[in-house]
Amino acid sequence: MAEEARILAEQTEAQNKIYAEYEAYGIWLCDWLPELLANLELVYVKKLQGENKHKREIERTVFMEVDEWHYDVSGFYFWMKTLPLPPSVKINMIMDETVAATLQVNLGRRVEIEYNKVPERPGLWIVVWHNEPLNKIPKHVKWPALYAKLPGNTRFEVPVGLGLGHKFHWLDMLEAKNLLIGGTTGFGKSIMINGLLCSLLSQNSPNELRLFLVDLKEGVEFTPYDGIPHLGGDMRFTRNEESGEIEIVDNDHVKTAKPPLFAGKIIYREEMVEIILDYFQAEIRRRGELFRHRGIRNVAHWNEKFPNEKMAVWLIVWDEFAQILRLLSSKVANRCMQKVSSVGEKGRAFGLGQVICTQYPDGDVMPGSIKANFPYTIAFYCKYPYQSQALLNNRDAHNLLSAHAGEAIFDDGKRQMIVQTGFLSDFTNKQIIANVKGGKINPDKGKVVAYKIDPGEIWNYALESLGGFCNVRELIKRFSPTHEVHKILKDFEAKLDSNEAESLPKPVIQLELDYILLPSAGNTMPRKLIKLSEFIANRTNYLPCFAIRDSRFAKSNGVTKPISVEQPAAPVLAVA
Fold it and tell me: Is the pLDDT of residue 207 over 80?
């Protein structure tokens, strides 16, 4: 027992030393962050009296202060008070990526800026990460964080990922129309497809976007999207008895016209493949005649000139394109491949596009006639060199060094860049689909809607993947927004009434069994989920955690800005 007590005392002393270093650096940042922000060129226009001109003046006064702050083994988290701001200094100016980049250069650490839209307490979170290298590609990125970075020029923007120096890459499907996604299974292809669909569905109503989801693996991948109002066409059609061609009908008085194809349904039968392509070719012919007759260049020009007659963007998403060759006869397959190439070539100007996804890319699946009309490619790790060659015309996707989930090569038609694509959790994906089915979309992109995190998702992930430890860095890779993760951990952290010798910690987390969230040990070991029964059986072993927590909060409540201290330089921060 004496040896155990000595080891515990040494651990506590080491933890308190690291805590003191964090505390000193946090106090320094509390004073230095407002100064850095004040010296940025956040300008406002001030009208000069007696003159008919405006002058750009730089606001150099401190206009933001640290309202709350705390830290953990991952980084420092500062809540900046932003009310009131100087004239014409807007929140979006502070949220600009150049501001975070400037802070990164000055602090030598990666910096993220998030805006908390809670009406009761609006403010900015500035997150300064410990020892996060700036010259590498991140290994984990959250999809909601990427979606929030979209510029919002059109409603068809899709986030791709973060590249070297955390540079944000995205594409506009209204411009690209055709996209290739390929790579070995298990490296993020399906998550990328779901992210693309959620981005488009979150911004567009069924009158603006029509999706044709083709899954020839019995509809497993797209099952959650079954029944969304965006599925299928929006134009009635007839079939010419002599030629067998499909003809689009835009006249409601044609009684023989059939209803739009595949409305509200996912396509999973191989015999429907050619019908979809015929339907697309018929719509290309119809739109082509209208565009020529009225002098229109593309679908965006049409919707701008004729807002009362808007045309929806049609998009086919092939989940496993190689199945066309495997399931159809060679004659039908060759005919379908020619039609895919034709739709890819002719459909772009008319607002009809395709996303081809495959885990078996090769020269047969991606012939030159198809590849030439797909300017954008996202290639995940490829097991064989010839697969990378089919996607990128080189072996780079096969030579990805780390080959971890989500890492891909993004080819925008001009250059190829390694990026880390965004992770979209099942919880967020299902919530977006539920919102779409309920008619809730976010067309204005007031950036991403903060999806409420289910605490149960955090607890289950921690128990299944993290051994019960609620490591903040790992959790915020999977859940967003960051401040909500911190709030949940803070609210559920177990507290013990010291006045009662045998009192039980609260709150109790009810899963299959009752758990408690053990406080972090000296702010260096993360919080941990343990069974309540285990705490009761080994109470004396866990009491030091509560003692360390109480002593830590006796020094500082962890959120209030400490009294300013004059320090000429930042203290040296040891690595835990």
Answer: yes
